[in-house]
Amino acid sequence: MRNPVAQNVADFLRHFPPFNYLDGSELYTIAQHCRLLYIEKNSNLFKGGTPVHSDFYIVKKGIVGLSLTSDAEEMLIDRCDEGDILGLRPFFAKNNYLMTAKAREDALVYALPISVFEPYISSNEQVLQFMLESFASQTRNPRDKERTGRLLAENTIQSEQEVEIQYFQPIKYSLNPITANPDDVIMYIAKSMANNNSGSVIIQHNQLPVGIITDRDIRGKVATGTIPVTAPAHAIMTHPVITVQENISVAEAQMMMLKHGVTHLCVTKDGTVNSAVTGMISEHDVVEAQANTPGVLLKQTRRATNNKELKYVREKLTDLIQTSIDKNIPVSHISNIVAEINIALTRRAIELAVEKIGSYPPVRFVWMTVGSQGRKEQLLRTDQDNALIFEDVPQERYDSVKLYFMELAELVTESLSKVGYEFSPYNIVAKNPKWNKSLTDWIKQYNEWTNNPKEKEIEANNLFFDFDFIYGYPAIENVLTETINQNITRNKKFFAHLASNMLKNQPALGFFRQFIVEGDGEYKDLFDIKTRGIKPLVDAARLLALSTGNIEITNTYNRFLKIAEAEPQYAELYEECADAFNTLQRIRTENGLINNSNGQYINLEEMSKSDKARLKNCFQSIANLQDMIKNRFSLTYLS
């Protein structure tokens, strides 16, 4: 007779990969070895930097957060809930945990010995394939790219160990190097290098590499007058040329350069001088390969001394987004990474501005970002929306204190503009006196917005309910958030205005389910994915989150997930909307990267049939959500 407890565990596991690839008897055998652990809220299941356990874990109930600690700041990377697996690093690496697993609420987890599960990996082809794909893609479920989360979340690209992972990945290099013959004149080779903005030329004989000329050769041998500019290439070329095979890793390339004391490597078909040239690796390529990891970008940000250095990081951030999109990393994770770097850039801009003023702030303050950056959804180069709140001071000091913070805000916002964050079209920036004032004045402002909402102002004011306090004195933040919370509690008039505004969003599809595109102007015949797709979801998530008393979570995706927990009767709809938001964000980001724009307007003719179908499915979820909101929020409170 089977143990009923073990059978219950088996019945639970069968719903989640990779356990769903096992048969009933295998699951029962595994279940007999599972231990149920109770993890109290804020207690650690395991801690980053500690040796790995002999067990890995499956969440049965509750939420376990995975976080990194950098410069004493804890950064939440992932949330694991029912059925999610964590602690699997021992399958692939014997080193310590990279991240800390902490219960975000009281949680129950199953602990399963790795030694018990390991045989099923080697004996079951589907389990093995799932594990390999999970490790390669760094996702919990590689078969479901639209779902966020990771099976091997401890290997998240936000950890500094990702630098090491990337270090052993293939390096990107030029596939079309300039070539010349040994008897070609140096002067013409130099002109060719200048015209092609190249630092090297491969010298070939009978289509095989025999040497290389670099900028250093021309500077050291020709510019000094040692060799005339009319001499042949073989007079200054370095030989023999150092060759490597295709798909060489960053680590191998750097090792070869150090070993041979060179700055360029010639890539050939078989890695020797006896096969055709297929590419060229420069020292710059090695540097670039190591410059686009989150850990490196954060370090560069904190060490930046001017706007030029901050701008460099922002440009590299775009490359990081592109790489992450190419690797099918979930959009919510990319957003978290980008948000942290955006925050670091803003913090550094504030620090540099204080240094430039030459005196410390006269009172404590906080810097608040609102809108997309406040929601941590700023993937592309969109607007900067920010504000400043300073401590209350006696009336006789108010003008001088505000003058300081106006100067500070001017320096910070101008710096961010130069870095690549355009000014808000609504002029919602801290250098605007309207958005730079004392705590009491801000409390009055929020009181007005919540208790006397005005239809014509609600659109711009909504941004201030998507906020993130990224710099300054936490007590100011606490007072303001508590004020907002008190004002919106049971405030039917305020929510009626939010609902009315949300329902005014333009439809995405026509009567016959065709996409509604722009009828005229600069974007004629293009589809506005932001206004017709993303904005309705942002507005709805804000409305629902605030109406349920949740003002601390401002990210749209996380708002929907949190609301789904609070209202299980609508959980399926909210989860569909969360997925729809991620899908729309990914499409917009991909479009923006391709066209070097903010991605708002899309040429539907360039989309595949399947992508269009995926896009339309998102709008069905939005329509269902709008119907629910119509029935839920009474608009009779509008005045």
Q: How would you describe this protein?
A:
The protein is an alpha+beta fold. The chain is globular, with a radius of gyration of 29 Å. The N and C termini lie far apart (69 Å).
The number of distinct β-strands equals: 22
Distance between the termini: 69 Å
What is the rounded Rg?
29 Å
Q: Helical amount among residues, as a percent range?
A: 40-55%
What is the averaged pLDDT score? 85
**Classification by helices and strands:** alpha+beta
**Regions with pLDDT < 50 over 5+ consecutive residues?**
135-140, 144-165
DSSP strand content: 15-25%
Largest beta-sheet details: 4 strands, antiparallel
Specify the overall morphology.
Answer: globular
Side by side, the strands of the main sheet go 1-8-3-6
Helix tally equals: 22
Chain-wise SSE layout:
Blueprint: H1 4-13, H2 24-31, E1 35-39, E2 44-46, E3 55-61, E4 64-70, E5 73-80, E6 85-86, E7 100-103, E8 107-113, H3 114-123, H4 125-137, H5 161-167, E9 179-180, H6 186-195, E10 200-205, E11 208-214, H7 215-222, E12 243-245, H8 250-260, E13 264-268, E14 277-282, H9 283-289, H10 294-303, H11 307-326, H12 331-357, E15 365-370, H13 371-374, E16 383-384, E17 386-390, H14 395-419, E18 422-423, E19 436-438, H15 439-451, H16 458-461, E20 467-472, H17 474-488, H18 492-503, E21 527-528, H19 529-547, H20 556-566, H21 571-595, E22 601-602, H22 609-632
Parallel strand pairs: 9-10, 12-13, 16-18, 17-19
Antiparallel strand pairs: 1-8, 2-7, 3-6, 3-8, 4-5, 4-7, 10-11, 13-14, 15-17, 15-20, 21-22
Helix pairs in contact: 1-2, 3-4, 10-11, 10-12, 11-12, 11-14, 12-14, 15-17, 18-19, 19-20, 19-21, 19-22, 20-21, 21-22
